[in-house]
Amino acid sequence: MYKLIIRPLFFLFDPEKIHHFTFSAIRNLSKIPGFSFLFRKLYLIEDKRLERKLFGLTFKNPVGLAAGFDKDAKLYSELSNFGFGFIEIGTLTPKPQSGNPKKRLFRLKEDSAIINRMGFNNGGVTEAIERLKKNKDVLIGGNIGKNKVTPNEKAVEDYKICFHALYDYVNYFVVNVSSPNTPNLRALQDKEPLTELLQVLKNENSKKDNPKPILLKIAPDLTNEQLLDIIDIVSETKIDGVIATNTTISRDGLQSNNKSETGGLSGKPLTSRSTEVIRFLATESKKAFPIIGVGGIHTAKEALEKFEAGADLVQLYTGFIYEGPKLIKDINKALIKKAN
């Protein structure tokens, strides 16, 4: 039904406008008695064989929603009814910001892809916390970044603000230095500034009574040498894991007319590269740390390839938009079948 009726209808409209419309529709439907139950009945699979225990957390299943979809923690509870094992909110910044000028979100239908140059648009960490206070049992990741106006030399302070503010309301943290849509942000992936940033957050974390897992989200555009640096940094700072990967600035092999739009590319064109990065990190580190695989997962087979390459969990974003919530169920069913 989704791919035959709902998606063609949605794809007639501006991507950002339909995103907000969909949020409202899901929220309003979920308020009607019986609809949340119906969504869970249709898509949620509960099976002990799907459980994953990582960095002190228990994930009901290993398929999560990637950051960027529910930036402001407005719909995490309703989205969990579609079968996600965890929801990552953000990227959140200390202060609210409107992001880059519109139009800033583009479908590449021929490529089953999306280009976005949103620019960390969000209502700020304080606003999101008010919604997270209502969370009952959804496992939440907090993806944090810096405000656009904050210079890189002061970026650490922005990450610290978000870390301390969100600490009581998320289960794990993700340090986002890999978005291509905030000027100079990716420079923070260089070994020296990244080591400093992660070490500061790790030190702040160690002061807490119950330290939370800290993960690093990296770009797919890093060279093998840079990926080896990432492995060294994880080892040195002793953070808890890596999310591979964010969107890419590459445009290789695209067919769509709007392929030249600036921003980060996600979806099918990223499938192979993100899997390559996962395999490289897992192999070269001798699986020294957990990896969450994200990028170009549109089928259960592609998710299984991520797991086989070394991912412990996976996340969806563009695949969820193109394939619908059945994709989550398909992946979990495939994992159960493989476990038998």
TrEMBL record:
Documented EC number(s): 1.3.5.2
Major enzyme class: oxidoreductase
Catalytic residues (positions): 179 (nucleophile)
Top-level taxon: Bacteria
Catalytic activities: (S)-dihydroorotate + a quinone = orotate + a quinol
Annotated localization: Cell membrane; Membrane
List of residues binding substrate: 71, 116-120, 176, 181, 246-247
Membrane topology recorded in Swiss-Prot or TrEMBL: Peripheral membrane protein
Positions of the Dihydroorotate dehydrogenase catalytic domain: 50-337
GO molecular function annotation: dihydroorotate dehydrogenase (quinone) activity
Record-listed FMN binding positions: 67-71, 91, 143, 176, 217, 245, 267, 296, 317-318
Pathways per UniProt: Pyrimidine metabolism; UMP biosynthesis via de novo pathway; orotate from (S)-dihydroorotate (quinone route): step 1/1
Names of the cofactor(s): FMN
PROSITE patterns registered for this protein in UniProt: DHODEHASE_2
InterPro entries documented for this protein: Aldolase_TIM (IPR013785), DHO_dehydrogenase (IPR050074), Dihydroorotate_DH_1_2 (IPR012135), Dihydroorotate_DH_2 (IPR005719), Dihydroorotate_DH_cat (IPR005720), Dihydroorotate_DH_CS (IPR001295)
GO biological process: 'de novo' pyrimidine nucleobase biosynthetic process; 'de novo' UMP biosynthetic process
Pfam families reported for this sequence: DHO_dh
GO cellular component labels: cytoplasm; plasma membrane
Keywords: Cell membrane, Flavoprotein, FMN, Membrane, Oxidoreductase, Pyrimidine biosynthesis
Cofactor binding, note field: Binds 1 FMN per subunit.
Function as written in the Swiss-Prot or TrEMBL entry: Catalyzes the conversion of dihydroorotate to orotate with quinone as electron acceptor.
Assembly notes: Monomer.
Record family assignment: Belongs to the dihydroorotate dehydrogenase family. Type 2 subfamily.
Protein name, entry field: Dihydroorotate dehydrogenase (quinone)
Record organism: Ichthyenterobacterium magnum
Gene giving rise to this polypeptide: pyrD
